[in-house]
Amino acid sequence: MPLYEHSFRAMGCPCRLRLECDDGALAQAAIAAAEAEVRRLEEKYSRYLPDSLTTRINRNAGGEPVAIDPETAGLLGFAHTLWEQSDGRFDLTAGILRRAWDFRSGKLPSQVAIDRLLPLIGWQQVQWSADTIRLPQRGMEIDFGGCVKEYASDSAAGLLADHGIRRALVDLGGDIAVSGAACRASPWPVGIRHPRARGEALAGILLAAGGLASSGDYERCLIVEGRRYGHILNPATGWPVQGLVAVSVLAEQCLVAGGSATLAMLREEGAALAWLEELGLPWLAVDTRLGVHGRLGRSVT
Amino acid sequence: MSGRRIFVVITLLCLAACAPVQPWERGTLAKREMQWQPDAMEISLQAQINASKEASSGGMGAAGGGCGCN
Amino acid sequence: MASPQADRHPALLALTSSALLLPAYQGARADAPPEFTEIGVRYSNYKEDNTQGSKTFGGSSQRYDVDAAQFHLLAPVADDWAVAVDVQWEDMSGASPWFVGQSLDGSPKVVMSGASIEDTRTEVSVTTRYFYDRGSAGLNYVHSKEDDYDSNAVAVDGSFNSGDGLTTYSAALSASFDDIKPTQGSVPTNTLKADKDIRSAWVGVSRIVSKNAIVRFGLSYTYRDGFLTDPYKLRDQRPGRREEWALGGGYRQYFMWPDGALHADYRYFNDDWGVSSHTLELAWFQNLGYATQVIPFVRYYSQDEADFFANIADTDKRYYSEDYRLSSFGAFSGGLRLRQELGNWAVTAVGERYATDESWGLYSGEESPALVDYWRWSVGLDYTFR
């Protein structure tokens, strides 16, 4: 059966659609719909775009509540679950810490710069419901970056299936979802990126259903006086969590895989490994000494 | 059931209802085993057999058509 | 994907539950048409115990043995429409109580209809359902045909969710037009041709009480008008109308450990024939991994007799009946349902025992010698076109 591939750039990363289909016109229609879905979600949730909902919510911080739709309420709900499950370490309002942290500068931020930002962080302050959201203070910001890409992968993969495609893969910068019944018979080979060796695969797996998501500080970390500062920041202190370097998780949905990987990254190294083992999903993690843990994509022997 | 027990049950239900369940918290409620009627054929057969042996019906829907069995 | 144990981790359950509410994932929306077409078939048999020799004239007697086959189809037909078709065939044979007489020792004994009665019934039900943002509305037509009984019924129903989606209000109306034409031959009949009408209305409300629990209440009113007498019983003369009220309540609660759900349902019934009853049903849905469900269930039923019921009817009265179904009794039933999913297939099996006794009831009255017990079993196969 002919294989169709389509690459484009969205959500700040390379995106790739791959699918098998007998009917060329159908394949093109499905590809167009899937790309449009990714772009729709980017336009809706990107904090860089001036007309996005995220920008509107952030611009209204300290002002009027902003009306939201069920999809946004669902994403907020998912983010809320991550916040609960991480004891507050996953926080949709923590993105502003990047004003203090510049991982390319090679320098640590001053404590003063961090302390100035901390009062503007706190998901518990945000007033939200199924219909509206309001950030209580001027200067507060939310950033859906932590879950929209995974959600978009699932949604695009679902759209491909809705078009009748029986074997499809959506890869949005490493957040991968597959769909279609034929994946079970012919799973997609997928590589998990090595967090340090660019272009090298840490492991290869065959993806028959569900989604694979990875979280890690792929080359984005600071080493100052021999100490590593990863880009996963604790919103309570404004300083990096001394956790794992990279985590990949496989789940029924890419969104759940991504959430699980994020929750693991927010824990200290030892606790994170134990938690991943308990969680029961297939996983793979790289620790600070570049030791690899977990069974995902590696033979047990 | 005594009046007091009914009161306790109603109070418990009201207390539970006081904490609104957000839409994103309703995933469990969508599970098959949480449906009012997870198995339509089983429910309809059971209702029909019971109605042919007992003098009562109804309560959770309008009455259906009759049959010679009752 | 995930191993069965995985689902039990509270963090994973929380993530999955909240993720599935997003529009990109199907199956989590209450008021969405089914995503896939489902078909199912069931074969059931239930066999009434022979009436004990001590309770009949003419020794032990074989009562009904019923075979039932069911077919179910549920299909989405557009973004917001779905159609369901249900067909049921039944084939029954056996004897049924004809009248009750007094034995020499004074105890009542039942006289069964001598020859075995043979009857078949076919029922076809078609429902279309429209889904809107805050609920759904259905239109249903049912046709049932037997050798001696025809019924045509229509029903409409609708539901509406509150703004927060926590409360759902529902209502339904139905009308049934039935024709009775008793088969002549085995026993003399009380009519040659008659009809009856049924009108029914129902209102209900359900509410989400927690992340893991829902509750509902419903009230139905049913008015029957026409020939309500049993055409085959020797001494049976019932009023030409009947008004019934039923108040129902239901509760479902999910328990993360041990990954199961409790179903509790209660009904109080009352009518102007003097019948009232309590019904309590409990079931436990136990998940064993992703694919297996084991469901034990129990039911208790107790009814008071109709005002005009007597074991040996006084035919001088205006209304009278010896029908055991109008006597006072209690019934216990219980059984086990199993469901095993195999990819897109699901296999189901049910075994159930139903037993009655006058002394089990909450109401006191004359014990009918014709009370019935039965065994039932069902097997079924479902397929989802994923």
Can you write the helix and strand succession of chain C as a string? HEEEEEEEEEEEEEEEEEEEE
For this structure, the CATH topology of chain C is Porin
Provide the CATH architecture of chain C.
Beta Barrel
Shape of chain C: globular
Give Rg of chain C in angstroms. Answer: 23 Å
Query: In terms of quaternary structure, what is this?
Result: heterotrimer
Overall pLDDT of chain B, averaged? 74
Count of helical stretches of chain C: 1
Percent strand of chain B equals under 5%
Overview of this protein structure:
The complex is a heterotrimer of chains A (301), B (70) and C (386). By secondary structure, chain A is α+β, with helices and mostly antiparallel strands. Chain A has eight helices and 15 strands. In chain A, the strands form four sheets. An eight-stranded antiparallel β-sheet of chain A has the order 1-2-6-7-10-13-14-15, covered by helices on one side. In chain A, a hairpin with a 2-residue loop joins β1 and β2. In chain A, α1 runs antiparallel to α5 and α7 packs antiparallel against α8. Chain A is globular. The mean pLDDT of chain A is 89. Chain B has 70 residues and is an all-alpha fold. Chain B has two helices and no strands. The longest helix of chain B has 16 residues. The model of chain B has no long low-confidence stretch (mean pLDDT 74). By secondary structure, chain C is mainly beta. Chain C has a single domain, classed as monomeric porin ompg (Porin), CATH 2.40.160. The N terminus of chain C is likely disordered. The interface between B and C is large, with 48 and 104 residues.
